[in-house]
Design a protein that fits this description.
alpha+beta; Hypothetical Protein Pfu-838710-001; CHAD domain; eight-stranded antiparallel barrel
Length: 523
């Protein structure tokens, strides 16, 4: 339960102790939105009809660190804030953030005479570290924004502060806009934050945000653009129930989705869309893997919803792959004729149009709602007594065995090397590999990693075969009855033919010992 505030406290402050220091455990849901959507947010009945907490105020915040950025390395933040004529000093530690919902320890007190005072911090490790670093602290970046705060009380026992922040982050002569809504829990259960956010997101383009203002400021200071995010190592432990394990994996996938979606909206780097789709595929694989422990309707609803989200971004990614893996090697060989160059130009044009369409889809409000809805359902997901008592390691071994059996069936079905059957085999191997990555902390590490790497190598070969088959079909359709383009499409197919023949001949024999040999998860 969050600590209650006093009516006289400024936004962001909790009731102070006698020495003026506040220690709180801040629980908030951070949401971003386009600046142009602010008027609609202010008009929303939830916001427009809510009482205000004080007047709108301009907040000037300066974040401090050592020249070596040691606080950032330790996931800590030291900030001064000027609100009107008042100065405050704030210390924050690492936040646990998932689906936009974050919880972090925070200490706040008056900032007096332009010097820091860490003596009242009641965690010895935090206080000692800051006192040791204090002589080296220098300003790193600033945030300037106007904050409007209103009080939401959707039901008895629930109180939430809705803070609308609009301004900028500035560092080293660079600036980037800041526009977000923070829902901070004062009283009630954290699930209330999701309920309010989903109500607002029905008509507003809100997206959950895991990245703090501080982290965005550090990126600007370091002049580091947002980079495509890849899956993190699994954090499962044998003590977890299957539902708790699924929730942890799903929140990690959701974080991957959020980060890469943010990057895809701002950057042309195709890797963002690729990793975004990987996040969605991993989520669907996790749903299948843990399906026996989850509510059936939950699995069916989200399997379909996530598939639709990924499919909507597929064309842009497929054309990027076709250019990189099929057409560019031909062009770089120096053998491409005019017809092939025309096909390459067509692919670039269509890829660019699909990327524009994908970006428009990402900017649509529906994606933010989908993320929030998934986060809310994950947060509320419960285990029944039977599932809760299930041994996770035993569950993992049984599920991996089933996935390998399915891959064996796909292997047998692909004996004639039909492209569609080879693609189905690839999908089954991908699901098996994702499952292994999710469950790795429960399995013998070295043998399991080798097994997963062997699968990944075969999967890459099958991926190339599928990419070439799809590209061949697409180029043939583009060429239509144009004799020159048909000649170019045939040239591209012929250029890849020797490699395709060799890989098709060797791929199944290479996979056989992996699928029928000893599995590392067997006792």
């Amino acid at each position: 339960m969050a600590r209650a505030r006093s009516p006289d406290s400024p936004p962001g402050a909790y009731p102070m102790t006698t020495d003026g220091t506040t220690m709180s455990h801040e629980i908030e849901l951070k949401l971003t939105l386009p600046t142009k959507a602010l008027p609609a947010l202010r008009r929303h009945p939830l916001i427009a009809d809510a009482p205000r907490e004080g007047r709108a105020c301009t907040l000037e915040n300066t974040y401090f660190d050592t020249p070596e950025l040691e606080l950032r390395e330790r996931r800590m933040a030291v900030r001064t804030r000027k609100a009107g004529t008042r100065w405050l000093q704030t210390v924050k530690c690492a936040a646990q953030s998932a689906g936009g919902l974050s919880s972090r320890p925070e200490w706040e007190q008056p900032y007096v005479n332009g010097s820091f005072d860490f003596s009242a911090i009641d965690r010895d490790d935090v206080r000692t570290r800051l006192e040791n670093l204090q002589p080296s602290l220098v300003p790193v970046f600033t945030t300037h924004f106007k904050r409007e705060t209103c009080i939401l009380t959707p039901r008895d026992g629930v109180k939430v502060l809705a803070m609308i922040d609009n301004g900028s982050i500035e560092a080293g002569g660079h600036s980037r806009p800041l526009c977000e809504l923070e829902l901070e829990l004062v009283e009630g259960d954290p699930s209330e934050l999701y309920a309010l956010a989903l109500t607002l997101a029905e008509t507003l383009p809100l997206t959950p945000e895991n990245v703090s203002k501080a982290e965005r400021g550090y990126r600007l200071f370091s002049n580091h653009a947002l980079r495509p995010a890849k899956a993190r190592p699994s954090r499962l432990t044998p003590e977890q129930s299957p539902v708790d394990a699924f929730r942890l994996i799903a929140f990690d996938c959701l974080s991957l989705w959020q980060t890469n979606e943010s990057g895809a909206r701002e950057s042309d780097d195709p890797e963002f869309i690729h990793q975004l789709r990987v996040a969605l595929r991993r989520l669907r694989s996790a749903l299948r893997l843990f399906g026996p422990a989850l509510p059936q309707q939950f699995v069916e609803r989200w399997s379909q919803g996530l598939k639709e989200a990924a499919d909507g971004l597929g064309a842009a990614r497929d054309l990027d792959v076709m250019l990189a893996e099929v057409l560019s090697p031909v062009a770089e060989s120096g053998l491409a004729d005019d017809a092939t160059q025309r096909l390459i130009a067509m692919a670039v044009d269509r890829r660019d149009r699909e990327k524009t369409a994908a970006r428009e889809q990402l900017l649509a409000a529906s994606h933010g709602r989908q993320m929030l809805a998934l986060a809310a359902e994950l947060y509320a997901l419960q285990s029944d007594s039977l599932v809760k008592s299930a041994n996770l390691t035993t569950f993992a071994r049984l599920q991996l065995t089933q996935l390998r059996k399915r891959a064996r069936k796909r292997y047998t079905a692909a004996a004639e090397l039909h492209p569609e059957k080879l693609h189905e085999l690839r999908v089954s191997l991908k699901r098996l590999r994702y499952a292994i990555e999710f469950l790795l902390p429960l399995l013998p590490e070295k043998a399991t990693v080798r097994f997963a790497n062997d699968i990944a190598e075969i999967q890459e070969t099958l991926g190339y075969l599928n990419d070439e088959a799809v590209a061949r079909s697409r180029l043939k359709a583009w060429a239509g009855k144009d004799p020159e383009l048909r000649s170019g499409a045939a040239f591209v197919a012929g250029w890849h033919a020797p490699k395709i023949a060799r890989l098709r001949r060797n791929v199944l024999p290479a996979l056989e010992p992996i699928l029928w040999g000893k599995a590392p998860w067997r006792r």
